[in-house]
Amino acid sequence: MIAAAALAVALAYDLSKPSGVWNLSRADAQSIRWPELKPVLETVQARVPANARLGVDLAPLDWEYPLWGPRLGRRLVWIPEQSATGVDWVLLGSKISERPAGRWCAHRFPTVDWTLLHRC
């Protein structure tokens, strides 16, 4: 009985799991614990096609799950381990500045030091 009461209190006051999460946008829900990622998530959702091959070069603690898209339709290409050939979008994570070869236009997110590249 005490365990159930403790669990109820813990869930009720866990700010990273608000009870109204189902009414939030995808980016709002995914950025509850990392609010500085919200602009990145919104931009990727709005600009990168749902079935695109998205190149990613992320730092070890950068979060890649939301990049797959709402139906997990994007294919992530791990750069530089995999070739960026045929990739039109690349997301560079925290403090990663080396771009793949080619001509890229950049959208920077200074609050998290991430950059979204697209071929121009």
What characteristics describe this protein?
single chain; 120 residues; alpha/beta; five-stranded mixed beta sheet; 21% strand
Average pLDDT, all residues: 88
pLDDT < 50 stretches = none
- Biggest beta sheet summary: 5 strands, mixed
Strand order of the largest sheet: 2-1-3-5-4
* Overall radius of gyration: 17 Å
Sketch the topology as an H/E string, one letter per element.
HHHEEEEE
**Portion in beta strands:** 15-25%
Count of helical stretches: 3
| Total tally of structural domains | 1
What helical percentage do the residues reach? Answer: 10-25%
The helix/strand class is alpha/beta
Query: How would you describe the shape?
Result: elongated
N- and C-termini, Cα separation: 62 Å
The tally of strands reads 5
Q: Summarize this, please?
A:
The protein has 120 residues and is α/β, with parallel strands linked by helices.
Describe the structure.
There is one protein chain. The protein is an alpha/beta fold and 120 residues long. It has one domain (35-119). Helix content is 22%, strand content 21%. It is built from three helices and five strands; from the N terminus they run αααβββββ. The protein has helices at 2-12, 26-30, 38-47, and strands at residues 53-57, 75-78, 89-92, 104-109, 114-119. It has a five-stranded mixed beta sheet, covered by helices on one side. A hairpin with a 4-residue loop joins β4 and β5 (114-119). The chain is elongated and about 60 Å long. The model has no long low-confidence stretch (mean pLDDT 88).
